[in-house]
Amino acid sequence: MLKGLALTPPVIGRITIGKIVEKNGKRLPEKDDEFTITSQIQNKDGWINHPLNEKLRKEHGNKLRSIPVRLLFDDPDLNLRSNYSLFDRQTGRPVCVGNGETCRRATKTGIQSFPCPAPESCELAKEGHCKPYGRLNVIIENEDELGSFVFRTTGFNSIRTLSTRLKYLHAVSGELLSTLPLELRLRGKSTTQSHRTPIYYVDLTVRNGMTIVESIANAKTLSDERKSSGFNQAALDEAAKLGFDNGAFEDSEEEGVAVVEEFYSDDIPADDRDKSENRSDLALAAKLGKKVEQLKFGESAQK
After folding, report:
1. What are 54's strand-pairing partners?
2. Which of 3, 108, 249, 267 is buried most deeply by CB count within 10 Å?
3. Residue 71 neighbours by CB under 8 Å, 6+ apart
4. pLDDT tens, residue by residue, 151-209
5. What is the pTM (predicted TM-score) of this model?
6. Where are the domains of the chain?
7. Does an H or E element contain 82, and which?
8. Angstrom distances, CA of residue 83 to CA of 14, 93, 94
9. Phi-psi category of residue 82: left, alpha or beta, with phi > 0 → left and psi -120 to 50 → alpha
10. 200: phi > 0 → left, psi -120 to 50 → alpha, else beta; which?
């Protein structure tokens, strides 16, 4: 096993509540009021939809606002990983990841640990590019029982709601998260900060038409069937934990480019559509255009 490489759940698709649109010559993230399920393939117009996207729309209505799912793991923190994350906005490389107490940071001398005071009190994050960042992996219709669709978000409402639901469902089900029949739901609310405009976030509930008691009974039945067949959920959770711990950062540079475009950048030129091909050019531009900024970062990190 390669050391330093985080082994993350195999991803076969993405779940989003937004998209990248072109406005005034710039590629900008735009929020949506429904889910979209995509493949992992892009063309010049964006991510190509997964076949499940159309299938579920036919079953649940044209506006896809709920998705039936199961989880990969019994441990809530393996299903949803959330932290404060700072990416290099030019290259997509993860720079610093923290939990509010400690962080792992890329410095000139390698990966180092530092106290993490949260973005509001962090000198490195003062420009506002460090955000809460969550990744939730789910199984849709047993498309691949060890593969998953990933929902990524920097939305505080989604991260807080999903974290709470996972803890509650884990507790009331007797730690049977992986066999509970669940559902991702899109919810909306207005706040004073949104000026009465609806903002949308993601929730996780028992499946539509089922009570929580029925869901737990269903989970116990499936759990017993799995144990009888030799399926070892505890070993799967442990393997996943070791895989995450094997790397300093969960997101690779390749994934980071897409994450930065969707969540961390508000000024991306329209001709930078194919980030995988342009990554070397962007890295060179970063070295030339932000040399002073990098030197300052290196000095502050060593302190």
Report:
1. none
2. 249
3. 79, 137, 138, 139, 177, 178, 180, 182
4. 999 999 999 999 999 999 999 999 999 999 999 999 998 877 766 788 899 999 999 99
5. 0.83
6. 11-302
7. strand 80-87
8. 20, 16, 12
9. beta
10. beta
